[in-house]
């Protein structure tokens, strides 16, 4: 189920602006990897490069190579939609489809894959909602609008929607930044369970969160505004937060950013 | 970590300097104090402080505006009531004088000594031509709107959108002239071709003459309602939250699938509203249809034979030579048209209302 993600010399641009430069890192299967760093350091850009969502923006492009289990996702012959089905994504703000019910939201990805049979969709929806720890809360109102749930429930709904298509890798772009602490805890618990099946890469601004949920942590930074973001240090989370090898990392995690 | 608070206090651009710049420079506050122009200046007691609370004013701008808006709102009701009373008062005597059934009689001769007129054929032609126009215009309009909002480069989209809006600015009489003198030729050729190969379908049957037909009228109408449907749908499509579009793409949707999953459902109420505005225009369109239809009285689904008529076109054609009863009869037909439009609008609102639970939580 889970695959290894490997980036070598990944450089991403927004038009003429170079947002990240020469990122090299490998994420092992069935682990949680946290990307941390100050705002504008390119961690979200890097995350969006991993499932080719970066290029959705006009003028945005990626150079270098990104592989999942040795297959280059930027290869010219690769179908971009297949890449995004293999590498799911959860966004910063919960974004359920407003016109769809809870059930329709969960199975939206399956329907896009051509699954039509009701019994299959129902089973998949229940499985995904159970995996997202949401089933008990919504099982009696699957036909109600997904946008009617609370923020934390919506985000878990989005996670259910993402994992319903059974991807190999799940990317999370600050998934808890719009949520209260209790919902955040629910999502963090969920990440622990999900890493049995998926490779998870999470961008977070919350360093306690990175320390709590991740096995490995990558620290990104920029020299100054306008410079491209670079990977400063990538190591076991425990090491990064207790004894980082780079001065910059230490400064950042102890709050002496500069 | 013990150092952290201190560090963050003067981190970045220098915290102390930032706070200072928010305060009034000494010189400025002194000047304010010397010349107290208004109570809203930051010097003195300030807006929310000091002294007894002032009494509320009895006659202020607040009350004046309230009165004005109330008057404007009432005026609408008065005008509508006045029109309705006038129309009914004029229509009733004519309807009494009618010697045939107003609903079923196929013909319009209200100026005779024994007035005979019926609304059935006109209402039928009105609904048929408008529905046909909408049927042809909506797919094209939605296609254009999707192209402009999601496929075209931004500059091209803006330019094309402007051109589409220009199309809406063409007066309907120009459309009528163009349809009657120029557009009729290709439509007639097309009708002959349809008749040759598809005459087994009743809608394309008949022996001619072809040309000034429901088909021509509906095509001209379709072009006329195209811009309004296009520009409204485009606005709605552009408002689709990027987050939803990205959610669809991240699930592995192609661009068309993304449009179907995120954009079209989100825009559905807007599309319906746009269609209703288009239908409203098509139902009420007068002069273009008066010029392009064959003006006959009869209920027929044949689209290509010369013929067809609508309530509005009939009013335009018959008003000039109408006597007292004739005018009353036309006014009665106008009331029927109004009722048709009303029913269409209510239906549209009902459709939008039905899925309100979803659309409201979207906002």
From TrEMBL, chain A:
Instruction: Mention one GO molecular function.
Output: ATP hydrolysis activity
The taxonomic lineage of its organism, from the top, reads: Bacteria, Bacillati, Actinomycetota, Actinomycetes, Micromonosporales
What protein name applies here?
A: Phosphate ABC transporter ATP-binding protein
Q: Which UniProt keywords apply?
A: ATP-binding, Nucleotide-binding, Translocase, Transport
Q: Name one GO biological process term.
A: phosphate ion transmembrane transport
Give me the segments passing through the membrane: none
Q: Which InterPro entries match?
A: AAA+_ATPase (IPR003593), ABC_transporter-like_ATP-bd (IPR003439), ABC_transporter-like_CS (IPR017871), P-loop_NTPase (IPR027417), PstB-like (IPR005670)
Which PROSITE patterns does this UniProt record tie to the protein? ABC_TRANSPORTER_1, ABC_TRANSPORTER_2
Domain of life, per UniProt, equals Bacteria
Any one annotated GO CC term: membrane
Under the heading Pfam families, the entry gives:
ABC_tran
Residue limits of the ABC transporter domain?
Answer: 5-247
Record the organism. Micromonospora inaquosa
From TrEMBL, chain B:
Q: How does it sit in the membrane?
A: Multi-pass membrane protein
- Biased-composition ranges, Gly residues, are 43-52
Entry GO MF terms? phosphate transmembrane transporter activity
TM segment ranges: 65-89, 117-148, 160-178, 210-229, 282-304, 329-348
On whether Cell membrane is a keyword of this UniProt record, the answer is yes
Signal peptide bounds: none
- Using the record for this protein, list the coiled-coil segments as residue ranges, or answer none: none
Where in or outside the cell it occurs: the entry states: Cell membrane
What is the recorded name of this protein? Phosphate transport system permease protein
Q: What is the lineage of its organism?
A: Bacteria, Bacillati, Actinomycetota, Actinomycetes, Micromonosporales
Encoded by which gene?
pstC
